[in-house]
Amino acid sequence: MLSQMQLQIQYEDAMQLPAGELVNIFKKLIFIRITEIADGSPILLFNATFLNGHGIDSIKQIPTVELRDVLQIEGHEILFSARMSGPIAQLLVAEKDVWPIAPIIIEKKQLILSMQGTSSGMSNFLGEVKALIGSHFKLTVNRAYQGEWLTAPSMSPRRKQVLETAIDMGYYDQPRQCKQQDIALQMNRKQGTIAEHLLIAESNILKAWFEQSRMSE
Fold this sequence. Notes:
The chain is an alpha+beta fold. Helices cover 36% and strands 31% of the residues. It contains seven helices and nine strands, in the order βαββαββαβββαβααα. It has helices at 11-14, 56-60, 87-94, 119-133, 157-168, 180-187, 191-216, and strands spanning 3-10, 26-38, 41-50, 65-74, 77-84, 98-100, 105-107, 110-117, 138-141. Strands 1, 2, 3, 4, 5, 6, 7, 8 and 9 form a nine-stranded antiparallel sheet that branches. Residues 143-151 and 213-217 have low confidence and may be disordered.
């Protein structure tokens, strides 16, 4: 049986970690998904809001964050992917029986890290986190789980069909069971069209979650 847990790690308890400076660059940084694994490190897709005075150059100053693609940037808002080689990022892909799920957020000088997996996988993951930063974090297991606030926003029938096909084909499984090209072939559409539908759907779902989380505070 799968379990879920959520860790709330404060900046002062993890400031020694290589990517700890992210809290000083972003007002809010939201994990969307792992897009691939490169040289043993995950490439993560993020939606983020810069703090005043910061931009793309600030990301490039963090050695363990390798900026890959900037998909969209408008004012302080940015959608980007980056290869993360720091110890926390390594843990996200090191244990096969546990994997990251939304929400994973950096906001207000803290990291909210949500994971799902088997009991043994969760136990191993938790042990590795404690080895990195000690026991100074708040842990929630199978209760008051923030991700449960999420409900799917309304979307067009075509976008919903693309998202459902991606789920059915294992696009969001870990490890991923198909590529966007496979979904495009299955639906007889262009890969660019599939990519756009998935990206917008994921963005809308995240926005819906945040709206509900604000209402619940």
